[in-house]
Amino acid sequence: MAEKEKKGHAAVYILTALCMILLCTAAAGAALIVPYEKFKTYLDIAFMDDMKIAPSNGLSGLVIKENTEIATEAPADQKLSDTGEIKRPVFGEQYAVLDCKSASIHVPVYWGSSTELLDRGACQSSSSSVIGEKGNAVIDAHVNTFFANLNQIKAGDEIVLYTTYGIFTYKVRECVTFENTDKRYVLPTDTEQLTLYTCQAQVLGTSTTRIGVLCDVVSKQFYTGEEAAQ
Q: Which site from 36, 105, 208, 211 is most exposed, i.e. has the minimal number of CB atoms within 10 Å?
């Protein structure tokens, strides 16, 4: 009988030890969740100080900034001028809205490119020119989302980019098709232009072919404010 009691006590001790191990493991796993979630924000960061937005909580990393102040028509309290100053965005900031009525495209534009940003809208390469300044402003988006209708744009169509500092209108000069290894359309240019591109749609897999539109600027309207216009 005493031997059975000893075996019973031993079983209780073993089960208790196993329960304690499981509880400790669960607690440790829960404690690691928060640091892991914080660490994930660093996975798609451009590690350059001038390409980050400083968040209010003091954490560094990719911070996506939505911009609800972008009007898709000239605000009543703003005067317009064909000359003015651009406002250079920071990485992760929505700084424009792209509109092409002929292809039913209306999409926010973010400065820089990452998986998270492409899930939210179109992305402009941070190595390209800011909208409104001399050079090539290069914008792309996924073909299965925001640029699904890019292949409907034709030469002569109008594309408008609305920003916090002005409204910029372009006319499509040419529609092009190129391989992803062909960089000639996304390189800097001496003249001011807009380049839009996306993958060529296909049923299976990912295409290496890109479709794009090359656009010339036809109108630049900078906001000056009432005081500046007087």
A: 36
